[in-house]
Structure prediction request, 250 residues.
Amino acid sequence: MIQKYRGASILNLIMAACVIFVSCGDEGEVVQPESPTSQPPTASEPTLEPTIPQPAQPTEQTPQPVEQMPQPPEQQQPQPVEQMPEQQPPPVEQQPLPQPEPPQVEQMQQPEPPAALPGVPDDTAGYDQWLKLNAEPIPPVPGFDPHNGTKNVYVNQTREGIAPNGEQQFPYPDGTIVVKEAMRPGKDFIGLIAVMWKEAGTNPAFGDWRFEEYTRNAADAEFRLLAEGAVCTGCHAGAAATDFVFVLLE
Ligand code: HEC
Prediction:
C-alpha cells in the first residue's frame, strides 16, 4: 500500500507538477507577449550572424596578406635586383654617347676660327677675335692718311701679357702679329690689311718687325700685296719708342 500510496502520491505529485507546469505555461504564455518584445534580443541573434561572417572576412583578408607577404618579399626583392643591373647598363651606354659629343664640339670650334681673308697670310686668320689695341675705331686722318680709312688694330697677345699690372710693356714678344684692318672711306667692307710680324733676327734695325700691306677694291675680291719693307719702316721708325707700333693699348 505504501508503495501504491507512494506510487499514487508520486503520480499525484507528477500530475500536480504537470498542472503546475501547465498553469505556469498559461502564465508563461501571458508573459510571452512580453517576450516578443524581447524578441529583438532574438533579432539580435541575426545581428550576431553577420558578425560571424565578419570574422570570416578577416580570415579571408588575413590569408591574403599572408599570401602577399611572402610573395612580395620574394618577388619584389629579386625584381629590383634584376632591374638595377638592367638600369645601370643603359646609363653606362648613354655616358659614352655624350663622350663623342665633345669631339663634335671641338669640330665645331675648329671651323669657327675663320680662314684668313682671301689673299692674306693664313697666320692672320681670326685676327678680329684677338686683343684689340684701340678702344674705338680710328677715324681717317684728315689730309694725308697712310692707311686711309676707319681702322682697328689687333694683336695676338693677351692684355695681361703685354700690359702686366695695367701698364703696357715693350718690346712685344717674339712671334707677335699686329694686324690693322681699314674700311676705305665710303666703303662698307675691309679694303686694307696691314700686318707686322715680329720675327727675331729678321730686321734688328726696326725691332725685328716684318711689314706687309694688302688691299682690295671689292668685298668679294681677293687681297693683293700692295707694299712691304722699307716703305713701311721709314714711317714706323717714328714709333721706335713703342717698338715701332703707333697705336697703344687702350
Ligand atoms: C706715312 C707713314 C706711314 C707709312 C708709310 C706706313 N705706316 Fe703703318 N702706320 C702709320 C701710322 C700713323 C699708324 C697708326 C694708325 C693710323 O693712324 O693709321 C700706322 C699703323 C700701322 C699698323 C698698326 C700698328 C701700329 O703701328 O699702330 C700696322 C700693322 C701698319 N701701320 C703697317 C704698315 C705697313 C705694312 C706699311 C707698309 C706697307 C706701313 N704701315 C706704312 C704710319 C705709316
Summary: The pocket of heme C is lined by residues 138, 141, 146-147, 151, 153, 178, 180, 194-196, 211-213, 227-228, 231-232, 235-236, 239, 245-247 (CB under 6 Å). Confidence is low (pLDDT under 50) at residues 1-5, 13-70, 72-78.
